[in-house]
Structures are given as structure tokens and as C-alpha cells.
Amino acid sequence: MNNLRYLAPTLLIAGFAACSSPEAAPATTTAPDPAAQERSYTVDPATSVVAWSGNMIGMPGHSGTLKFTEGSFTTKDGHVTGGNFTVDMKSYALTDTSYAPDGSKQGTRAMLMGHLMSPDFFAVDSFPTAKFNITSVEGNVAKGELTVRGRTNPATVEGITLSSDSSHAIASGDVTFNRQDFGVAWKATMKDMVLSDDIKLHIELHGMSK
After folding, report:
1. pLDDT reported for residue 12
2. What's the 3-state SS for 160-171?
3. What is the CA angle 196-86-207, rounded to 5?
4. Which of 67, 75, 125, 140 is deepest in the core (most CB within 10 A)?
5. Could you tell me if residue 80 is inside a domain?
6. What is the pTM of this model?
7. Residue 4, in any domain of the structure
């Protein structure tokens, strides 16, 4: 019993020493995921592009590109959440090779370019830009308003992909629209019937953080 009486204070002091020991592991903090934060990007017209294609019955289709004049988009949690864009309708570049040699009476590259820019199709002198404004996003699908040749109709961007960091983002997606809804129709009815009503777009946006 006497030994226990002397041992108790020693054990008590050792217990206090253990409680005050600085051996506890320091708390760790996790850096926030940049993709989870809402960010805004300005479209870079020099590197962003719209690739378009159209088909014809019994003949090869045509394809080309258009450039943006301006635009912006927002992202959060790895998804595009909003945006609006303006396309330069005078920036046509043709990428397919289905043309007659220069000097031919029909089907040359220059003739197609003239048709696309004329009042028969996109009337670029009267309507030099086209626009798209995102109104809602669900997953990798964005709904919005497409304005072509001064007419505005609903349109949907599907298959949206996004890669981004704090300073740069690349977003892409696909749109198909009916040209008849926008008054893009050849006055020669029989010739117009040869053209598919659907115009397919692949949009690639390169954005710099605001």
C-alpha cells in the first residue's frame, strides 16, 4: 500500500505530460478543385472555329469553316453552364474538294462561295453575323437561340466536351439546324430540293479566363 501511495503522483504527472505532448498529427487541408469553381472565359476568335457541312442528293456534299467575331462562356463542375457567341458569316473557307475545275460553266469553288454568300442562301451583305445564345444546360446538352439571316429559332448543342483550367478552356459540341427555318433556300425550287435541309455544325471554342 505504501508503494502505491508513492506511485500514484508519478503516474498522474506522466499522464499530464502525455496529454500536453505535441505529437498529434497536424490537420490537413485539401485544395479546392479548379473545375468545381465557376469561371468565365472570353472566346479567342483566332483559334475558335465552326466547321459546317451540308449534303446533296446524288452528289457529293460540301464542308467548310467559319470564324467567330466574339463570345464568352461560363463553366462549373466540369461543364459548360452558359454563353453567347457571334460568327462572322463573311469568313467562309471551303474544306472539301468536290468542285469542277476553274473555268467550268458549273460547280466551281468560286460559284459555290458566291451562292452561299448571296441572297439565295445566307445573304451575308445584309446579315453579316450569326449568333447563338445558351438559355439552359443539362449535362452535356445546351439549349439556346440560334439567329441566322435575321431569324431566331430554338437550337440544341449536343455532345458537349470541356477541358479547362484556371486560365484556358476548350469547349466543343455539335448542332444540326434546318436551313428552311431561317429562310436559307434557293429560289429555284427544283434545285433547292436537291439540297439537304439539315446543316451540321461542329463548334470548337477556345477561351481565355476573364
Report:
1. 39
2. EEEEECCCEEEE
3. 115
4. 75
5. yes
6. 0.80
7. no
Query: Considering Cα of 64, then 116, then 183, then 180, what sign does the dihedral take?
Result: negative
Mean pLDDT calculated for residue range 112-120: 91
The length of the chain in residues reads 210
Structural domain contains residue 115: yes
Q: Is residue 3 part of a domain?
A: no
| Number of structural domains found in the chain | 1
Residue 66, domain CATH: 2.40.128.110
H-state helical runs in 29-150: 109-117
> Which structural domain range is residue 77 located in?
34-209
Kindly report, residue by residue over 161-194, the tens digit of the pLDDT. 999 988 999 999 999 999 999 999 877 666 667 7
Q: Which amino acid is present at 172?
A: S
**Cβ 100 vs Cβ 110: under 8 Å:** no
